């Protein structure tokens, strides 16, 4: 861990440390530099892809990219089923962690949403730059309880072994923040190493930029989930201009944990009357796709009503068309009592035995 530096001394003596405070320190440092120096530092970072070697680069990276990483991670965290973060025995593995921004954002998220951060029993930080890894360990040490065991692994991704990833805890959260699109390591080898570890319960949080549907770097991001073979419980893609601050975004959550949900089919008589303007939303839950649609159905009083709904359909089925029937289902979580209504297009003229949670 980084010690005996001005920065480490300052960080260790700031009460209630958070990622917000670390961003503020980086902001103050960079804004006090001449603009041309900031520009030079930014260019040295190669848009966040190069290894960082100096203190000014460490500060510039958080100043330039911290808000973006945080927004993408929080988008994913907001779509993790609540009961998963309530596990009492959690391990975190942060791949290509850099300064541990994903680990820090997770700590802030737990505190801000009243999850018990002491449930996180261990953290593995994986980073090839020793200089950066020392800083990552310092930040994790200051943001997490003393009961959390922090392990650092100074390796490139292709050099990882199943022993590096070993965890004894009941739930392992794998964090991939802006790393899966990096082409310098083998996704196949990484997926094989993870699968060799054979955890009972796993959650994969994967975020990064969105390069467009036919980009090779985007294909890497999506291919990783295929290699792991776990169910996608959330997926969202934004091109530049469609999301915050003109950032692009890919966010995906994979898990082998099945939510404890009961379903009740209310009707299968609804019909699609039209679609809202705009392209198909790239959003998946339990392997299905979604789009905004106008649905006509009869309510409990026998009245014919039209509603604009978030309409899902089965993977492999054709895209819904006007006139297709719609199944209306009530869902309820047996873990936390949440409930709602979900709509599924019956593109293959069949009633589904399971309807995904509607979560906008």
CATH class call of the largest domain: Alpha Beta
Task: Please tell me the total number of domains.
Answer: 2
CATH superfamily annotation of the largest domain? Vaccinia Virus protein VP39
The CATH topology assignment of the largest domain is: Rossmann fold
Beta strand count: 13
Précis, in short:
This protein has 360 residues and is an alpha/beta fold. It has helices at 6-12, 19-31, 35-44, 55-77, 82-85, 101-112, 130-143, 187-197, 216-228, and strands at residues 90-95, 120-126, 149-153, 171-177, 202-208, 231-238, 249-255, 261-275, 281-285, 288-298, 304-314, 325-333, 339-345. The chain has two domains: 6-255, Rossmann fold (3-Layer(aba) Sandwich); 261-345, Beta Barrel (OB fold (Dihydrolipoamide Acetyltransferase, E2P)).
How would you describe this protein?
This protein is an alpha/beta fold and 360 residues long. The protein folds into 2 domains: 6-255, Vaccinia Virus protein VP39 (Rossmann fold), CATH 3.40.50.150; 261-345, Beta Barrel (OB fold (Dihydrolipoamide Acetyltransferase, E2P)). 30% of the residues lie in helices and 29% in strands. The protein contains 9 helices and 13 strands. Strands 8-10-11-13-12 form a 5-stranded mixed β-barrel. Strand 1, helix 6 (101-112) and strand 2 (120-126) form a beta-alpha-beta unit. Helix 3 packs across helix 4 and helix 4 packs across helix 6.
Give me the secondary-structure topology.
Layout: H1 6-12, H2 19-31, H3 35-44, H4 55-77, H5 82-85, E1 90-95, H6 101-112, E2 120-126, H7 130-143, E3 149-153, E4 171-177, H8 187-197, E5 202-208, H9 216-228, E6 231-238, E7 249-255, E8 261-275, E9 281-285, E10 288-298, E11 304-314, E12 325-333, E13 339-345
């Amino acid at each position: 861990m980084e010690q005996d530096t001005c920065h480490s001394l300052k960080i260790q003596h700031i009460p209630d440390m958070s990622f917000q405070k670390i961003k503020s320190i980086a902001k103050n440092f960079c804004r006090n530099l001449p603009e041309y120096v900031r520009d030079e530092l930014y260019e040295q970072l190669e848009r966040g892809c190069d290894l960082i070697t100096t203190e000014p680069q460490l500060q510039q990276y958080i100043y330039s990219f911290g808000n973006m990483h945080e927004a993408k991670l929080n988008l994913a965290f907001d779509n993790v089923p609540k009961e998963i973060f309530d596990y009492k025995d959690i391990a975190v593995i942060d791949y290509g962690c850099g300064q541990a921004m994903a680990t820090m954002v997770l700590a802030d998220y737990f505190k801000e949403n009243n999850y018990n951060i002491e449930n996180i029993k261990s953290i593995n930080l994986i980073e090839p730059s020793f200089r950066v890894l020392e800083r990552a360990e310092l930040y994790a040490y200051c943001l997490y309880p003393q009961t959390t065991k922090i392990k650092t692994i100074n390796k490139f991704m292709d050099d990882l072994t199943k022993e590096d990833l070993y965890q004894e805890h009941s739930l392992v959260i794998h964090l991939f923040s802006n790393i899966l699109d990096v082409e310098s390591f083998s996704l196949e080898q990484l997926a094989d190493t993870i699968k060799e570890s054979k955890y009972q319960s796993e959650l994969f949080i994967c975020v990064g930029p969105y390069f467009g549907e036919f980009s090779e770097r985007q294909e890497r991001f999506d291919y990783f989930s295929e290699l792991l073979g776990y169910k996608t419980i959330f997926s969202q893609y934004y091109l530049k201009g469609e999301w915050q601050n003109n950032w692009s975004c890919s966010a995906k959550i994979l898990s082998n944990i099945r939510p404890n949900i009961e379903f009740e089919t209310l009707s299968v008589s609804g019909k699609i009357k039209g679609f809202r303007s705009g392209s198909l939303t790239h959003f998946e839950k339990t392997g299905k796709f979604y789009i905004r649609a106008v649905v006509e159905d009869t309510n409990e009083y026998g009245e014919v009503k039209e509603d604009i709904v978030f309409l899902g359909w089965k993977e492999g089925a054709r895209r819904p068309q006007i006139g297709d029937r719609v199944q209306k289902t009530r869902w309820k979580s047996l873990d936390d009592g949440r409930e709602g209504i979900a709509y599924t297009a019956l593109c293959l003229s069949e009633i589904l035995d399971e309807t995904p949670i509607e979560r906008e």
